[in-house]
Amino acid sequence: MSLSLFSLAGKIALITGSGQGIGLALAEGLSEAGAHVVLNGRDKAKLEAAAKTISAAGRKVSVAAFDVTDQATVEAGVATIEAEIGPIDILINNAGMQKRAPFTEFPVEGWHEVMATNLHSVFYVTQAVTKRMVPRKRGKIISIGSVMSELGRATIIPYTASKGAVKMMTRGLAAELGKHNIQANAIGPGYFTTEINKALIADEAFSAWVSSRTPAGRWGETKELVGAAIFLSSAASDYVNGHLLMVDGGLTAVV
Ligand code: NDP
User: Fold this and answer.
1) To bridge 163 with a disulfide, which of 8, 49, 90, 149 should be the other Cys (CB 3.0-4.6 Å)?
2) Pfam families in the record, alphabetically (predicted)?
């Protein structure tokens, strides 16, 4: 057993939604493990600022700004990365959003927006990437699910539906692409202190409930997702396929 099993040296990793939050933490972690990371999001200036910090640490980083909810834009973005940077070895489907409203009042536009960002994007980006991985007979697909891939929760029904679907998409991808030496797995984060949870963090009662509901007794820090992402990106996980790895301080293991 050697630590080189976890090395990502020479690998190219595209991480969607990586200008901030969990995506940025994963980009920093994968680049530290040796990967050339490609940052994605809709705000080019934000991505360039994040890239500056990563390259200042002597690591390889590029920027590919595109909206993951538009299939043609995704295909063009992936084609450009492959032509200008090289073959994508690792894809992390991380871009996501959340909207809250009681189900009976949930606006249909909100439903479509959440589905487009959290689910349709995973189809577009994964298809564009895996059709190029299949002939190369290697690749790692990691999709960011959630504890909501497993649990229901009021007022965020499109979010839970999208994250549940990400879990099942991961299993289907494992079934179809395993024979091409492509592993598709997912990570299920618990509650982490990022922009998506700004309102929840500000709500003291809710924030305390998260800590008491979680066996770890606290919210997660984004750097605590890095180990799982490196494992699922590396040779260490070559016989792990279709798995949803919860990184939630134990939340989904207990009631
Ligand atoms: P943030 O809101 O901080 O980050 C979301 C990222 O997604 C941003 O970088 C945003 O970039 C990007 N993004 C959103 N829409 C698009 C789009 N259409 N095209 C490209 N990029 C897009 O949240 P987190 O970092 O917390 O979330 C990351 C992932 O982790 C999400 O999938 C989320 O559901 C999941 N997750 C988070 C948990 C948490 O507790 N924080 C728990 C469980 C899962 P920009 O707006 O600049 O385009």
Assistant:
1) 149
2) adh_short
